[in-house]
TrEMBL record:
GO terms for molecular function: symporter activity. This is Major facilitator superfamily (MFS) profile domain-containing protein. The chain crosses the membrane at residues 20-40, 82-101, 113-131, 171-192, 204-224, 285-309, 321-343, 355-372, 384-404. NCBIfam families: SP. Keywords: Membrane, Sugar transport, Symport, Transmembrane, Transmembrane helix, Transport. It is found in: Membrane. One of its GO terms (cellular component) is membrane. Coiled coil: none annotated. SUPFAM superfamilies: MFS general substrate transporter (SSF103473). It comes from the Eukaryota. Residues 27-427 form the Major facilitator superfamily (MFS) profile domain.
């Protein structure tokens, strides 16, 4: 302990003197708001695709199925490649953009990468809100996807590099917390705009993404750059000054020397992605890939994207369907706070194991109820079974929110050495 702070323990057993300074807390909270944009983009599409006016304009075939009520199967009225492209194009673009983001985070810094993301999103929002045809709509989603790929690369890195070791987990999970808040906000917006008659409901839902995009631009202009990034780009004086600021002490020689050594090793790596293929980087790479794969395979996107449609099949009316989606988002936010509190106390692994069991049980119950009670002849459940499914979905969302959701971003940002960190985070 030193001056009310604590010592963090990096590699080689060397302890660095550090305090929990206001500038670190404020910078991490501000930077984590990049997750708001991601969460809103995730949450908004499910409600928008349930709006009749949106379907009527862009997907008249689907609108005809919904309006007529004629369908061969409970889940087939939205079986349309164009509609699926609207949802998935954001992620296809994000997948591509994240590799470019690896370059910008390494060469330009974490802050400029956030700024680039905000600019992509502003243009994407304008195209989406003003869309006159499907091509314009998809183009906007692609730009939004680019805007998602850049902050998902830069923000977790920023948080991990600026936070003291002992509270790094909790501060890093602020990104995921903002993702859940963004999803909840999107559900609330959809709940309100769905009641607007005419064509303006869906336009307002898509256009409000601009708030989070503008916020990210402001954030990129306000936060400080990380010492790691400054040292990595040869700005040694600035890097040392920022390190003193965020650690709240002038005794930063040990940590700064450590950064210099790590940066020197990183500069020897001319091709970070090629370096990842070396056997000494396989364990970190395997863990990072596996975490992200299994995070997606938990089925969370089926819930977050299609919650309104899912609840419609349970017999909820249109209002009740959106209300249930809002309830799911409301469970998501406080459950992420649980992770912030426990991740540095309990550890990463116990949370992953406990939540895996909890999610499996929830999904098993949901599958059994659907398999027995929902058929081609009956696409709704009795009140008792509908409530049971709702409870199990909330139980599932809670488990994901305090485990695989935030830890899927946190752990990869911690385990890669500096020379392959940006490349590893991209993968």
């Amino acid at each position: 302990m030193a001056g009310g702070g604590f010592a963090t323990a990096p590699a080689h057993g060397v302890e660095f003197e550090t305090k929990i300074t206001p500038i670190v807390i404020i910078s991490c909270i501000i930077a984590a708001t990049g997750g708001l944009m991601f969460g809103y983009d995730v949450g908004i599409s499910g409600g928008v695709t349930a709006m009749p006016e949106f379907l009527k304009k862009f997907f008249p075939v689907v609108y005809g199925r919904v309006k007529s009520g004629a369908k061969k199967h409970n889940y087939c009225e939205c079986d349309n490649q164009g509609l699926q492209l609207f949802t998935s194009s954001l992620y296809l673009a994000g997948l591509t953009a994240t590799f470019f983001a690896s370059y910008t985070t390494r060469k330009l810094g974490r802050r400029p990468t956030m700024l680039i993301a905000g600019m992509f999103n502003i243009v994407g929002v304008v195209l989406n809100a003003a869309a006159q045809d499907l091509a314009m709509l998809i183009a906007g989603r692609i730009l939004l996807g680019c805007g998602v790929g850049f902050p998902n690369q830069a923000v977790p890195l920023f948080l991990s590099e600026i936070a003291p070791t002992r509270i790094r987990g909790g501060l890093n999970i602020l990104f995921q917390l903002n993702v859940t808040i963004g999803i909840l906000f999107a559900n609330l917006v959809n709940y309100g705009t769905a009641k607007i008659e005419g064509r303006w409901g869906w336009r307002l839902s898509l256009g409000l993404t601009g708030i989070s995009a503008l916020l990210l631009i402001v954030v990129a202009l306000l936060v400080i750059e990380t010492p790691t990034s400054l040292v990595q780009r040869g700005l040694l004086v600035e890097g040392k000054n920022v390190l003193r600021q965020i650690r709240g002490t002038v005794n930063v020689e040990l940590e700064f020397t450590n950064l210099l050594e790590a940066s020197s090793l990183a500069k020897e790596v001319k091709h970070p992605f090629r370096n990842l293929s070396q056997s000494r980087n396989w364990p970190q790479l395997l863990i990072a890939i596996a975490l992200q794969i299994f995070q997606q395979w938990t089925g969370i996107n089926a819930i977050m994207f299609y919650a309104p449609l899912l609840f419609s099949t349970l017999g909820f009316g249109s209002d009740a369907s959106l209300y249930s989606a809002v309830l799911t988002g409301a469970v998501n936010v406080p459950s992420t706070l649980v992770s912030i509190y426990f991740v540095d106390k309990v550890g990463r692994r116990p949370l992953l194991l406990e939540a895996g069991i909890q999610m499996f049980f929830s999904q098993l119950v949901i599958a059994i109820v659907h398999g027995i009670k929902v058929t081609d002849h009956s696409n709704s459940l009795s009140k008792g079974f509908a409530v049971l499914v709702e409870v199990m979905i909330c139980n599932y969302v809670a488990a994901f929110a305090w485990s695989w959701g935030p830890l899927g971003w946190l752990i990869p940002s911690e385990i890669f050495p500096l020379e392959t960190r940006s490349a590893g985070q991209s993968v």
